[in-house]
Amino acid sequence: MTDKPVWQPTASRDVLKNRAQLLAYVRGFFAQRQVLEVETPVLGRHGVTDVNLDGIPASVNAPGITSGWLQTSPEYHMKRLLAAGSGSIFQVARVFRNGERGRRHNPEFSMLEWYREGFDDRQLMAEVADLVCGWLGCKRPLVLAYRDAVQAYAGFDPMKVSDRDLARYCEQWLEPEQLAGMGRDACLDLVMSFVVEPKLGVDAPVFLTRYPAAQAALARVSDDDGFAVAHRFELYINGLELCNGYWELTDPQEQLQRFEADNRQRRAAGKSEMAVDQAFLDALDAGLPESSGVALGLDRLLMLKVGAASIEEVLAFPVERA
Amino acid sequence: MASYSTNEFRSGLKVLLDGDPCIMLENEFVKPGKGQAFNRVKLRNLMTNRVWERTFKSGESLEAADVVEQDMEYLYTDGEFWHFMLTDGSFEQFAADAKAVGDTVKWLKEQDVYTVTLYNGAPLSVTPPNFVELEVVDTDPGMKGDTAQGGSKPATLSTGAVVNVPLFITIGEVLKVDTRSGEYVNRVKSS
Lengths: 322, 191
Hints:
Chain B: GO terms for molecular function: translation elongation factor activity. The structure holds two protein chains of two kinds. By secondary structure, chain A is α+β, with helices and mostly antiparallel strands. Chain A has one domain: BirA Bifunctional Protein, domain 2 (2-Layer Sandwich), CATH 3.30.930.10. Chain A is built from ten helices and twelve strands. In chain A, strands 1, 5, 6, 7, 8, 9, 10, 11 and 12 form a nine-stranded mixed sheet that branches. Chain A has a three-stranded antiparallel sheet with strand order 2-4-3, with no helix packed on it. The two termini of chain A are about 15 Å apart. In chain B, strands 9-8-7-10-11 form a five-stranded antiparallel sheet. The longest helix of chain B has 4 residues, at about 100. Chain B is elongated. The N and C termini of chain B lie far apart (about 50 Å). In chain B, about 30% of the residues are buried. Classes of the chains: A alpha+beta, B mainly beta.
């Protein structure tokens, strides 16, 4: 089924103006704080190993190179710059995630990603709040631990709940045979998406923090009351997930182990394995400075600014019209 | 038969769910940035007309249902079946049972064109056009000249449908009726 192409944009001229203002605001914000703007490849040699992220493969014709990936985020390249001594950096990047299309998703979107040398997650959260609240004119965000949020809205302890009870809880939405192939984290994602998220940031913005270690991705992990938790944070406003940040993992050994664990999960999920980006691991080997980094969806920030219910209201051309 | 994966889900898609043909009404893609993606889907079961809500993991798929909608002219009923004919010049005929015809029976007029939904080649449902023109066969005597004042009365139409009409309507007049609401629209002509 293919629709007839439509040439007109989906965003109004007013919203396009808002987008230009947002970009100017972001650049002013970081200029004032002396964070360097950088550009890194949109087309990279490697994709990511993350089981829930699908890049878009590209066919390339360059000496010795025949394939590549449209990047799901500029993270690896930006960390290589950090390791090379760039100091704090930011980027407004176009990123790509295959198969993601919905009211809040378009497979191509604008991501603001930045890294602060010497910052821990708390310090970076304060800066995210400055940037977001300065633009939206909203209240300062509250901070809520992942565990407390699930406890409050879903009524169980995500750190202690047994796999069996968790699966039984998810039977509200999925048949037992659908749940059979799902791991603990996918079940928790379901609970997060369907039950917790819609409640987050309704009265005031909320930072969700202290994720279970299994959902650490590229964040460092520490002990919290006997449970391993990730130094990872996400900001929610009106139930909309706006950003994802880490106090960055700098240990190349642990990073490699996480990549390998990702690939095991990919295999189990019937997805093809992704080659590990050796240049990125080499950069970690050379030494990534102590830093925190965050990726923020600019289209969603714009949705909040103009009160858009759907992402196409803030995009000139969503994928169907691209 | 083909199948549709979650990334092909969209409203209007006809799929098989629990063995019944369904039409997708809504599809919401939900995914935490780093997490598992799901599709929350609303479907109408075309057999029962009931609306179902289901959740699918990204990558799951549903079998396509062989459901097509075709314009057909209503011919006649033999008491058990209602007979329709394709308007594409093929003269191919289809017999719909009472379940397929459903409430549309009260709007069926010979030679008018209806949308017949076929499932595996057999009529599953019959949808009337939004407006039909039918003759009044029974109603209380009209009040001449009373065209402006409010008030209504029931009138029985040639198909057996009963609609509320203004007081001035008389037997033999042809009325335009909205089949979605079952409401009188206007008089077409007096016979």
